[in-house]
Automatic annotation (TrEMBL), chain A:
It holds the Pfam family COX1. Residues 42-558 form the Cytochrome oxidase subunit I profile domain. It comes from the Bacteria. This is Cytochrome aa3-600 menaquinol oxidase subunit 1. Belongs to the heme-copper respiratory oxidase family. The chain crosses the membrane at residues 20-41, 62-82, 102-127, 139-162, 189-215, 227-255, 275-298, 310-332, 344-368, 380-404, 416-440, 452-474, 494-515, 592-610. InterPro entries: Cyt_c_oxase-like_su1_dom (IPR023616), Cyt_c_oxase-like_su1_sf (IPR036927), Cyt_C_Oxase_1 (IPR000883). SUPFAM superfamilies: Cytochrome c oxidase subunit I-like.
Length: 656, 326
């Protein structure tokens, strides 16, 4: 019996690597610690009622952000391990197999489990507040989306200690990702982790489109929406067209692996090219999905800290929408070198270049928002200003890559790696950090320590250039991506060392950010009003953090930057109409079903990964039971009475 | 276009000076030794300049604006908080990128056709053929005209176009010799053609650029370009001294693992064709054929009858696939 358990455990857990053993031990210890703290302080009930079952968009947003910061840590550690391995030729720090797992998980985690949830977190917190709504259109679905994402991410992450990590690259090209190339369980964890969280992403896309189209405050026509809301809309439209492709593609790969079909295999009439086309039809729009909201964030911040209206509003909207549209016609530029023929390559080169035009226009509009403004530079604005040159250079190297015949020399090289890290870090990460710093007081009611934030900023920025500029050069030296080691005589070492140093500078920057958050919590200093940046949009017209119902009275919007205009009118002493009487506020009730249903999805996914039908079938039945339970729940909403609203408002606004 | 390029020559030289300073010859992509790599290098410089025309002013403008309009006591800079639109300015910054992109697009389309990898290189000399197969985790090169084979090593005569036919016996890889020219994928079930040529003698680095599993990083190889005489002498030497590659020997090569340089005096007949068509089921004539692969028919001047036969076979496959609505 003991032997059997031993044998099972050695298959179940990943064994044999001291690094992983260390991680397993530390994960086990953290779990014990968390359970202990929750039990000791009697916080289980609080956790369940206040967070796990919450359908409040603000809390869901915060949970998204916490999850994404954890994932940033994991993906960042992966990155640093890789940089260490590459710091010297022929280093034996990581074995080839381990290295392959690490770059695969690094890519998947950073895009799908770091950038996406950070983005959804900001959507959740900001969009309803900006459009004067009390929640998203489908609060229950919103909670379900979060938990689907969370358990999908966890399913992917456990592969690192249980069963084995995927190692076929972040997009898992077949035939390498088929059973013939990856017989282990890692690839199945990949499929189900992404699949489950992908359903959540799709639902979020739908949710926010409906929220934006149907829940805006009276008077806020489409062309009066803040630019961030426009960017969320364009991103969500891209999501609902792109994510179904991912779901179908991974499902076909699953059928290949699980039932022995031949969609993408070499034999039996399958064709791996089909997968590559499909995955990039999702994959390319995906990068625009994450960058578009960053553009929106920059637009808000640039305008707020220039004390000036956003320049070229209509032009900006048109640019966002056209980027979203064209993002679906560029996918083949990821494989110019797979023999598509001259006409196909030329077509996709041109569509790719076309996207540069609206993107460039946006840069000019940001610059001219600052032009003749009054610029101040707190941390959100610093990130924004750092973004512009970084993204412009990254965009330029993107245009270089789009020149198809030249791409034959760039493709698969470190030049490409440097390019997409520059646009994804310089664009997406800088953008979300800017947004996080900007809206942090709105989320929590206190500001983050500016001094530490500046340290973090400079370490991030200097680290970024030190890390990635040498990689452009390495690409031109012929260094290809995903190599786990290289020869002494290639002359790649010096620049690799520089790059590794840069990576660690960014690691230090991350520590500064954690310190900054911890420090700001310890020396908690409540912001003295809800409008600490002297903002322009509706979210700054309510207290920080926003009360459960957001707006005691739904605002009547008259113009773009409505809150700014209101303040101008107040300053000019114009009389304001008397506030309408308060009314009972209609709110959604919390529900445990999204959490439970997502746990069932996790069980289902885990069972399918291991091919344990005794586990998968109950998981599936659990999902169905949750769907039924929700369908027959009629008691889903309630009203907050007027006197409670009055009391809350008095307490929040009285502290002014 | 021409005066434009001439005007920017100083910029070009400066860029070259910067990128090539110090350890110049390590930037192998920018130090090509063949016509294809040369054209690609020109294109890289040209597109860089076209982009720089717009990027550099934008960077300068950013610095100026951020400095000039920063909030400080006694600032004399104008402040117009409600200035939000200017049709004239909008036309300028929609217009400039459009013009640049049109220029770049024109160049790109021209070069895309000129540098289509299966397009033969114009030369008085007849092209030699090398059949390339990526294995787990090594490269097998076969010289059908000479009937010799090598592993992780290529020798070619200078100034002679080389027609590489690429396929894979396993997961796809990408065949890249930066100093001769850009890469092309090697994919199972199809044969794609890449023409390259070395204009100078020398030893060039080659690698598998696309990840294909565990020891992918070990898939590097050396390309030696020599005089035609030396090349012919080498072929004779290999024929005389190296062992033959048998079918069993090939099976052994396909097993996962890395390999040093190896030489073979002969190889089983039709091996390449067998690798390409191995997934075609008995009784059907279908195989995957793809884009650039049709080049076999372009290069009708193929050197021996066997190749002609192969290309007929390939065309038949292509028709079959079209028939399937592929």
């Amino acid at each position: 019996m003991l032997d059997k358990i031993k044998e099972f455990a050695s298959e179940f857990f990943v064994t044999g690597d001291p690094l992983i053993l260390g991680a397993q031990v530390s994960i086990a210890l953290s779990v014990v610690a968390i359970v202990f703290v929750l039990t000791f302080f009697k916080k289980w009930r609080w956790l369940w009622t206040e967070w796990l079952t919450s359908v409040d968009h603000k809390k869901i947003g915060i949970m998204y952000i916490i999850a994404s910061i954890l994932m940033l840590f994991r993906g960042g550690v992966d990155a640093l391990l890789m940089r260490l391995q590459l710091a010297a030729p022929q280093l034996e720090f990581l074995e080839a197999e381990h290295y392959n797992q690490i770059f695969t998980t690094h890519g998947v985690i950073m895009i799908l489990f770091m950038a996406m949830p950070l983005m959804f977190g900001l959507f959740n917190i900001v969009v309803p507040l900006m459009i004067g709504a009390r929640d998203v259109a489908f609060p229950f679905l919103n909670s379900l989306s979060f938990w689907m994402f969370f358990f999908g991410a966890m399913l992917f992450n456990v592969s690192f200690i249980i069963g084995g990590s995927p190692d076929a690259g972040w997009l898992a090209y077949p035939p390498l990702s088929e059973l013939s190339g990856s017989p282990g369980l890692g690839q199945d964890f990949y499929i189900w982790g992404i699949q489950i969280s992908g359903i959540g992403s799709l639902a979020t896309g739908i949710n926010f489109i409906v929220t934006i189209l149907k829940m805006r405050a009276p008077g806020m026509t489409l062309m009066k929406m803040p630019m961030f809301v426009w960017s969320v809309l364009s991103s969500c439209i891209t999501i609902i067209f792109a994510f179904p492709i991912l779901t179908v593609t991974l499902f076909l790969l699953f059928i290949d692996r699980y039932l022995g079909a031949h969609f993408f295999t070499l034999d039996g009439g399958g064709n791996p090219m089909m997968y590559i086309n499909l995955i990039w039809m999702w994959g390319h729009p995906e990068v625009y999905i994450v960058i578009l909201p960053a553009f929106g964030i920059f637009s808000e911040i640039v305008s707020a800290f220039s004390k000036k209206k956003l320049f070229g509003y209509k032009s900006m909207v048109f640019a966002l929408m056209s980027i979203s549209f064209f993002s679906f016609f560029t996918w083949a530029h990821h494989f110019f070198t797979m023999g598509s023929g001259a006409n196909v390559n030329a077509f996709f080169a041109l569509t790719t270049m076309l996207i540069a035009i609206p993107t460039g226009v946006k840069v000019f509009n940001w610059l001219f928002t600052m032009y003749r403004g009054r610029l101040s530079f707190p941390t959100p604005m610093m990130w924004t200003v750092a973004f512009i040159p970084c993204f412009v250079i990254g965009g330029m190297t993107g245009v270089l890559l789009s020149v198809a015949p030249a791409d034959f020399q760039f493709h698969n090289s470190y030049f490409l790696i440097a390019h997409f890290h520059q646009v994804l870090i310089g664009g997406v990460v800088f953008g979300y950090f800017a947004g996080l710093y900007y809206w942090w007081p709105k989320m929590f009611g206190f500001k983050l320590h500016e001094g530490l934030g500046k340290w973090a900023f400079w370490f991030w920025n200097i680290g970024f250039y030190v890390c990635f500029m040498p990689q452009y050069a390495l690409g031109l030296m012929g260094m290809t991506r995903r190599v786990n080691t290289y020869d002494f005589d290639m002359g790649w070492q010096p620049l690799n060392v520089v790059s590794t140093v840069g990576g660690f500078l960014m690691g230090i920057a991350f520590l500064f950010q954690i310190w900054q958050i911890a420090h700001s919590i310890k020396f908690f200093k409540k912001v003295d009003n809800g409008d600490n940046w002297d903002g322009r949009t509706l979210e700054w017209s309510i207290p920080s953090p926003a009360p459960l119902y957001n707006f005691a009275r739904i605002p009547q919007v008259q113009s773009q930057d409505d809150w700014w205009e209101t303040k101008q009118r107040r300053a000019a002493g114009e009389p304001e109409p008397a506030p309408a009487p308060l009314e009972p506020i209609h709110m959604p009730k919390n529900s445990g079903i999204p959490f439970i249903m997502s746990v069932c999805w996790f069980v289902l996914g885990f069972g399918l990964v291991w091919d344990w039908l005794w586990m998968a079938i109950p998981g599936f039945l659990g999902v169905v039971a949750c769907l039924l339970a929700r369908s027959f729940t009629y008691d889903t909403d309630y009203y907050i009475p007027v006197d409670e609203v009055e009391r809350t408002e008095a307490a929040l606004r009285g502290s002014k | 276009m021409r005066p434009f390029i001439r005007m920017l020559t100083p910029v070009l030289l400066l860029l070259m000076a910067v990128t090539l300073s110090g350890c110049g010859e390590q930037f192998i992509v920018l130090d090509p030794k063949g016509p294809i790599g040369e054209s690609q290098k020109d294109l890289i410089y040209l597109s860089t300049i076209l982009c720089a025309v717009i990027i550099v002013p934008v960077l300068i403008l950013t610095a100026i604006i951020v400095w000039r309009y920063r909030d400080k006591k006694g600032s004399t800079a104008k402040y117009r908080p409600n200035w939000e639109h200017s049709t004239k300015l909008e036309i300028i910054w929609w217009g400039i990128p459009i013009v640049i992109i049109i220029a770049l697009a024109t160049v790109t389309v021209k070069y895309t056709h000129a540098l289509e990898p299966s397009k033969p290189i114009a030369s008085e000399k007849e092209a030699i053929t090398i059949q390339v197969t990526s294995l787990d985790w090594k490269w097998l090169f076969k010289y059908p005209d000479e009937n010799i084979a090598t592993v992780n090593y290529v020798k070619i005569p200078e100034d002679v176009p080389v027609r590489f036919q690429l396929t894979s016996d396993t997961a796809m890889n990408s065949f890249w010799i930066p100093q001769l020219g850009g890469q092309l994928y090697s994919m199972s079930g199809m044969a794609m053609t890449l023409f390259l040529q070395a204009d100078e003698q020398g030893s060039y680095f080659g690698s598998g650029a696309n990840f294909n599993g565990k020891d992918f990083a070990q898939m590097t190889f050396t390309v030696d370009a020599t005089t035609e005489q030396d090349y012919n002498a080498w072929v004779q030497e290999v024929k005389n001294s190296a062992p033959a590659l048998t079918m069993e020997g090939f099976e052994k090569l396909t097993e996962p693992g890395t390999s040093d340089k190896q030489l073979f005096s002969s190889f089983p007949e039709g091996l390449f064709d067998k690798i390409v068509t191995q997934y075609v089921e008995e009784g059907s004539s279908g195989g995957h054929h793809h884009g650039a692969a049709e080049s076999e028919s372009d290069t009708g001047s193929a050197t021996d009858a066997k190749n002609e036969a192969e290309s007929d076979n390939a065309d038949a496959n292509q028709e079959h696939m079209n028939h399937e609505g592929h």
